[in-house]
User: Fold these one by one.
Assistant:
Number 1:
Amino acid sequence: MANTYLALPLYRAESALSYFRPTQEFPEHVTMDSPAMLVMTDLRQVTAVTVEASVSIDWALNRMKESGVRLLLVADSHDDVQGLITSTDIQGEKPMQLLKELGGQRSDLRVRDIMVPAEALEVMRLEDVLKARVGDVVVTLKRVGRRHALVEDIEPHTGRPAVRGIFSISQIGKQLGIAIETVEIATTFAEVSAALNE
């Protein structure tokens, strides 16, 4: 017996038509013992906010403000991660130190000048995050003195490592209902040297 299919009714579109965007609903309240995945921004559910290395740092800061984030992945035209830049990088000491060394004006500084390059990035692996609790992530971020952490997974279509998620200490604090502070720790020899010479 042949299936009978029915045409769906069509309607005139509303004049103020918008479109859905991917969103991730974070649980409002978690505890330190909750699974870590409950506080991770999952890039399978939320589009990563990216920036090109060649744009000015102030343009990047405006992109952060418009997107409501404090971290941008620096990506090239092939969507390969070149590094990352945070609002702390842009609004902190890095730009002033660079201008003191090289001269010029703030408007001359590009994202590539102050970003953390890909070869210096440290990531968590998804396999570890799946077994971790919120408290484990908080302790890790405090120990390394960072406000964010990237989570790496294997992209199933390419078989290559890719950023699957992002942890943000401010997002975790919001979900825990407490303020969590991390102390920025110099991570490269140049940063340690600069801090000692101040």
Number 2:
Amino acid sequence: MTALAFDVPMVFDKKKKPSTLTGDTLISKVYSFTKETYYDICLSKEFLNENDKVLIVDDFLANGHASLGLVDLVKEANAQIAGIGIVIEKGFQNGRSKILEQGIKLESLAIVESLETNKINLK
């Protein structure tokens, strides 16, 4: 919906290289705290190059590993990073600081400050 709203192309990464993805591929290794495992995110080089300016959009931000993995893909393609947009950020985890340390603009629609028994506290 973000790409549609801005009337720009959209590219999405895959958590596993599909058999249909052939040719040169950008790959970044990302740790999933939810699944307690590493996985490779990948994107065909034909969809991203040095002339592109990329806004990374993701559903959740916790420790920042997925977002920073996407940053790695963009940098590997020599493209520019416009920023990162997050739907829900877990503000009590360190993902925000890791992204800001890279000098990347970050915006979140909702920031969860804490999770308590049957209660979510938003910023």
